[in-house]
């Protein structure tokens, strides 16, 4: 290894240490790494954004195609043939992902975007394998249970190979969709009241926020915190907002709590540099304001006047939220 190569390999760790000591800001660290063609989390070259998008889209489309084929039952293939048609591509995708992204003996030939996409393809094919096994055994497995198992597999994959995209699939597939009962019975249906279900959803969202912070703040090597930080606020705030609609009051305590939590989410997002928290908090704040307007004022005004007022309110709210978002997340101002 030549001295420049050794220096480049050690640079990310040194910069992270200097950032922790307060000698450099996160923006300065990212700028230095970008100038050297390194990613913020290691010595790999940072993949081009278009390559990441195209590769990930290709992996998802290919995986969905296999899922569609599984759904056709493949009447002309024996059981072992169906299994191999899914199992071998899944294992091949994992092997290809390792070879193109993580194999230390091929570091000079790494293609990080394509390697990550192949890992993701393997995770999608794992869902096809679960569906195929349930189909072959004629097991009366609920769709929500299969999605939860699929999400668990994607969760394990995400942590095994440090793949945030896998977690972004795992959380909605394994938690959000089964919890809401989109494709089957929801575990919340066993609760005695609708209010308890709303509070459970909000509690799951709050747990995701805590989990995100346990990974560490943005800018550190804990990149796997971002999916938790993204999916937590809509569940927490949405659960409390839904709780308001279980009451017959125009302005219930749940709506006030939702507003306080939304503003608190914005504040925490600014404090801990979580852009997703700022966005979700501002969006929920606007939703609460509109709810109060239509429930307290809209019913008391003439229809035409109410619509005019609503239009003006929406325009003003959009302007104020955009201004607030840019103020709280100043990095947006630097974008072209």
UniProtKB/TrEMBL annotation:
<protein>
    <recommendedName>
        <fullName>DUF2157 domain-containing protein</fullName>
    </recommendedName>
</protein>
<keyword id="KW-0472">Membrane</keyword>
<feature type="transmembrane region" description="Helical">
    <location>
        <begin position="300"/>
        <end position="321"/>
    </location>
</feature>
<feature type="transmembrane region" description="Helical">
    <location>
        <begin position="145"/>
        <end position="161"/>
    </location>
</feature>
<feature type="transmembrane region" description="Helical">
    <location>
        <begin position="83"/>
        <end position="101"/>
    </location>
</feature>
<feature type="transmembrane region" description="Helical">
    <location>
        <begin position="48"/>
        <end position="71"/>
    </location>
</feature>
<dbReference type="Pfam" id="PF09925">
    <property type="entry name" value="DUF2157"/>
</dbReference>
<feature type="transmembrane region" description="Helical">
    <location>
        <begin position="196"/>
        <end position="215"/>
    </location>
</feature>
<feature type="transmembrane region" description="Helical">
    <location>
        <begin position="276"/>
        <end position="294"/>
    </location>
</feature>
<keyword id="KW-0812">Transmembrane</keyword>
<feature type="domain" description="DUF2157">
    <location>
        <begin position="16"/>
        <end position="164"/>
    </location>
</feature>
<keyword id="KW-1133">Transmembrane helix</keyword>
<feature type="transmembrane region" description="Helical">
    <location>
        <begin position="167"/>
        <end position="184"/>
    </location>
</feature>
<feature type="transmembrane region" description="Helical">
    <location>
        <begin position="113"/>
        <end position="133"/>
    </location>
</feature>
<feature type="transmembrane region" description="Helical">
    <location>
        <begin position="251"/>
        <end position="269"/>
    </location>
</feature>
<dbReference type="InterPro" id="IPR018677">
    <property type="entry name" value="DUF2157"/>
</dbReference>
